[in-house]
């Protein structure tokens, strides 16, 4: 299991509306380019789980996997957070807002 803290970025000019993860950490957790997954909003976390029938797909820039959570719902979910802690486990990625 690996944990990182990342800042909330901008999406379409609005502050705190994007969490962008890419590269080796995704691959090591099994989230390779084209892999399907589900996204579930819990009370304090957002959980991505690999699921071959999932409605979402890991995108890419060349061979680099990318997961970009963005939009109004992300802004509202993390509105009281300074940063987001991202935890990578095999087949599961968890996002949790934190204050520093």
Please give a structural write-up.
- This protein has helices at residues 24-28, 72-77, and strands spanning 2-7, 9-11, 14-22, 36-41, 45-50, 56-57, 59-61, 64-70, 83-89, 92-98.
- By secondary structure, the protein is mainly beta.
- It has one domain (2-98).
- The chain has a six-stranded antiparallel sheet with strand order 1-9-10-5-4-6. The chain has a four-stranded antiparallel sheet with strand order 2-3-8-7.
- Strand 9 (83-89) and strand 10 (92-98) form a beta hairpin.
- It is globular.
- The two termini are 22 Å apart.
- The mean pLDDT is 89.
SSE blueprint:
Elements: E1 2-7, E2 9-11, E3 14-22, H1 24-28, E4 36-41, E5 45-50, E6 56-57, E7 59-61, E8 64-70, H2 72-77, E9 83-89, E10 92-98
Antiparallel strand pairs: 1-9, 2-3, 3-8, 4-5, 4-6, 5-10, 7-8, 9-10
Brief write-up:
The chain has 100 residues and is mainly β. The chain has 2 helices and 10 strands, in the order βββαβββββαββ.
Average pLDDT for all residues: 89
How many discrete structural domains?
A: 1
Q: Main sheet, how many strands, which sense, barrel? A: 6 strands, antiparallel
User: What's the helix-strand series?
Assistant: EEEHEEEEEHEE
Number of discrete helical segments: 2
- Secondary structure: number of strands: 10
Radius of gyration over all CA atoms, rounded: 13 Å
Structural class of the secondary structure composition? mainly beta
- How much helical structure, as a percent, in the residues? 10-25%
Strand content: over 45%
Strand order of the largest sheet: 1-9-10-5-4-6
Dominant shape = globular
Give the N-to-C terminal Cα separation: 22 Å
Q: Pick out the low-confidence regions.
A: none
């Amino acid at each position: 299991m690996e944990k990182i803290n990342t800042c909330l970025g901008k999406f379409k000019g609005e502050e705190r509306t994007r969490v962008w993860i890419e590269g080796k950490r995704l691959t090591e957790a099994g989230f390779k380019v084209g892999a399907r997954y589900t996204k579930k909003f819990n009370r304090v976390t957002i959980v991505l789980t690999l699921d071959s029938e999932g409605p979402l797909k890991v995108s890419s820039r060349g061979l680099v996997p990318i997961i970009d959570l963005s939009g109004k719902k992300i802004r509202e979910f993390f509105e009281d957070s300074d940063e987001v802690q991202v935890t990578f486990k095999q087949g599961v990625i968890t996002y949790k807002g934190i204050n520093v």
